[in-house]
Amino acid sequence: MTSPSPEVPDAPVTPEPPKPPETSGPQARTPDAAELARDVARDAKAEPRTVRQWITLALGVLLVAALCVLAGRWQWHRYESRSAQIEIIESNYDATPVPLADVLPGPGAELDPQRVWQQVTLEGSYVPEATVLLRNRPVGSKAGFHVLVPFVTEPTDGSEPVVMVVDRGFVPLGADASAPDEVAAPPSGRVVVTVSLRADEPASSRDAPDGQVQAINTAQVLAEGPDGGAWADGATVGAYGSLRAEDPAPVASLRALAVPDTDPGSHLSYTFQWFVFAAGAIGGFLILIRREKRETVTAGDLLGEQRAAGRTPGEPAPRRRRGPTAEEEEDALLDAQAAAHEPAAHDPSARDDART
Fold first, then answer.
1. Burial class (CB in 10 A: 0-12, 13-18, 19+), 103
2. What is the per-residue pLDDT across 202-230, written as a single tens digit (0 to 9) for each?
3. Rounded distance between C-alpha atoms, residue 190 and residue 246, angstroms
4. Which of 122, 242, 241 is nearest to 192 (CA)?
């Protein structure tokens, strides 16, 4: 009886690798190493600047540096001017008061710029009916009005009387903001007044309501009075006074005027900054010249060397083989001597030859 032959198991079926998806249209061609090297070299290596380009760039740098120097000099002049103003304020504001005649001898006199903020004393009386308000001149960031009152001196030495506008102080805005709610009256009768002298301001061309002005200009202030300024013709001086003290004191005082500002500002630091900018422009131009003259290696140069050596882009360069060290040469010499003696030790004929 024939035994049944064993069943042979089916061979495992190897799955076919997935086919790449078919794309419609022509396939993009992969650029070879030479093309890639040329493209990179063209993009990475800039052409040297021409003489015309260098001249244009140099003129631009000189223009920028010149503008920076001019701005620095302008800031320096502002710093010097501000420093001179501060020096005058510090010298005159707290100085001992002197009679008005020592600074302004009589009608028509102009104030010396070096005597601005000088304290002087006036003896005479106010003209309260000629009071005028100065608008748009905040004090301590608070809106309001300055109260301007003409003062007529009464000299005891026989000199001519002088009419001077005195800024008595500050009042806040009223309910409708067009005028203050009330203005405290000045002392009546003969008064001794201490003021800091200020130069007359230029006349303002801006309009103002009746009884108000936009600048402390003696002629404009007197003209805004109810009777005009004709009564003071020929008696005024080219200055006005900021009130410091009144004797006797008034029944109700106004808010005191602000102390003059002595902050020098940032003009000096701005001066240094502009000069640094000018030096930076010139220094940057010199660095650019140095970099332009220095030979640089670009990515295009490296790819060109790879192509010349027959390597593909990205393939590392073969490592250079270094020469043997002194220790390695000595070991090789010993090994060679040992190899030369070994055949004589194992070959009998060599030993017999050695005996004979």
1. middle
2. 999 999 999 999 999 999 999 999 889 99
3. 11
4. 122
Buried b (16+ CB within 10 A) or exposed e, 107-131: bebebeeebbbbbbbbbbbbbeebb
- 119 contacts 194 by C-beta, under 8 angstroms: yes
What phi and psi, each to the nearest 5 degrees, are found at residue 193?
Answer: -115, 135
**Helix axis angle, 33-44 to 299-308, nearest 10°:** 150
Q: Which of 64, 120, 5, 34 lies closest to 283 in space, CA to CA?
A: 64
Rounded to an integer, what distance in angstroms lies between the CA atom of residue 65 and that of residue 280?
Answer: 8
* pTM of the shown model: 0.65
Whether the ω angle into residue 248 lies within 30 degrees of 0, i.e. cis, is: yes
Note the pLDDT tens digit of each residue in 152-184.
999 887 789 999 999 999 999 988 888 898 999
Q: How far is CA 128 from the centre of its chain?
A: 50
